[in-house]
Amino acid sequence: MNENDPPATHPESQPAQDALPDAVVEPRRGFSLVWLIPVVAALIGGWLAYKTVNEKGPLITVSFHEGSGLEAGKTQLRYKSLEVGHVKSVRFSEDLSHVIVTAEMSKDVESHLGAHSRFWVVRPRVGLSGVSGLETVVSGSFVEVEFGDGEPARNFTGLEEPPNITKDTPGRQYTLSTTELGGLQDGSPVSFRGIPVGEILNHELAEDKESLSLHVFVNAPYDQLVHTESRFWKTGGFNVSVGAQGVNVKMDSLLSFIAGGVAFDTPDLDTATGQISPAGHRFKLFDSFEQVAESSFTLRNPYILYFNGSVRGLTPGAPVEFHGIKVGVVTDIRLDYDSATERLRIPVVVNIEPERVTIDGGQNETSVTTAPAVQQGHPLEKLIAQGLRAQLKTGSLLTGQLFVDLDFYPDQPPFHPSTEGTYPELPTMPSTLEAFQNTAADLLAEIKKLPFDRIGQEVLGVVEGSNRLVNAPEIHEAVVTLNATLKDLQKLSRSLERQVTSVGGDAGKTLHAAQEALEIAEPGSPLLVDLANTLEELSAAARSIRAFTDYLERHPEALIYGKSGPKPR
Fold this sequence. Notes:
Blueprint: H1 14-18, H2 36-55, E1 59-64, E2 76-79, E3 82-92, E4 99-105, E5 118-122, E6 125-127, E7 130-132, H3 136-139, E8 142-146, E9 155-157, E10 171-178, E11 189-192, E12 195-205, E13 212-219, E14 231-235, E15 238-243, E16 246-251, H4 254-259, E17 261-265, E18 282-286, H5 289-295, E19 301-307, E20 319-322, E21 325-333, E22 336-338, E23 343-352, H6 372-376, H7 381-385, E24 388-394, E25 402-408, E26 425-426, E27 428-429, H8 432-449, H9 452-470, H10 473-520, H11 526-554, H12 558-561
Parallel strand pairs: 1-9, 2-8, 10-18, 11-17, 14-18, 19-26, 20-25, 24-27
Antiparallel strand pairs: 1-4, 2-3, 3-4, 5-8, 6-7, 10-13, 11-12, 12-13, 14-17, 15-16, 19-23, 20-21, 21-23, 22-23, 24-25
């Protein structure tokens, strides 16, 4: 028998198993607690589902030109550095022109998603105002949100660049009107007396298509300095202007040098009576502070000046001065043909600003303006009668710029202005250079009248006669004869010199002997007196001989012709 075989069943054990009773199952009456478990689970699931659906924020779409730094499930949407949503997906538009970002926002900001809300990607940027977005180097890029008012919206267009000023930045926004943008750009600073107080937000072409509108923002509390009479002007880091006053160089801050800038000022700020300008007020933007100063003179009287000479170097904007004080400005230069005289002339229109002149004891006579004043009498008639004239002068030798100078010239003839022109006429005088040129032209005209041909012929005849006289044979023979005579005179002079030397020696011996005799003779005797006279005569004779010898050395020809010299042929 194998050990693995099951044990044998004994027949005597079977009746014992059949004797056991069968179990009776009876149904239990009432609710079982087991069913509470699925019911509770269902209630919890429903509550969780309701809570999830109820707290789930709205889905919005934001379109950007590019999706740099945006990742689905990772990039956050933040408002004031707090998370208000996250990116669900990033996909292309149908035409692949931009990127559409789908984001889920928090439930508590749903009511703030107005149509004017703005979205932009925050990433490291370097701009005129400095470096921004450095925190994204560690945390990664995120989408900044600025909630705005308007109708509820779910589709938005994102900004490619962060806005310079957010909605909650304290301050006010204004509009500046100008004809040229120049070196200004978005982000250029706005300063007040050298202090940066704001910046340029953006610019656009005005509705008239001829001017530009610049939107600037002035931070609080500096916006309280902007009044209705405030003036705005352009500033630059390096400004060079060339005019009648010469070369003018100005240097501003480095930021203004790079991006330009705008400055403003409020006249009489301490005693200003004007109200603080409301947000959105429009101001005129001047090109420079000099134009701001010029704008304070509002009364301008036009006059016309006629010049016959060249006006090269005279440009619109050149000053009109009286004794070095600016009283006006040149506004227009033209070329006019006068059909009555059939001549071309150059009319120059100037604006005289009478507010620059203070007149004591009476009304300002120059306050009469425009062409109708011509019919009433010339505004400067009394001054013209006293010799008032306009003249072009050089303001700078370096630039050659001209300006109009007013002064009195009493010696000028009377001037009778025309009453038919558009503007009153001021008499003019030729410039100094023009007068010099006219004088030079007159001098050349007089010189041109001289008979240079006759003068040349006379000079030529004199030269030819002198040539014939010099080259004549008689002159040659006379020179040869004179040369031989001079040689003979030289020999005679040497012989006389030897003889005079011998005579002088003998005279010396004689004088010595006479002196010895005088010492022997008695003083006052007749012999001594005669001897003294003889010695004086001998001394005079010696001096005459020496003088004659010297004269012959200098003029040997005197032996032939005498002291009068040779007589002319």
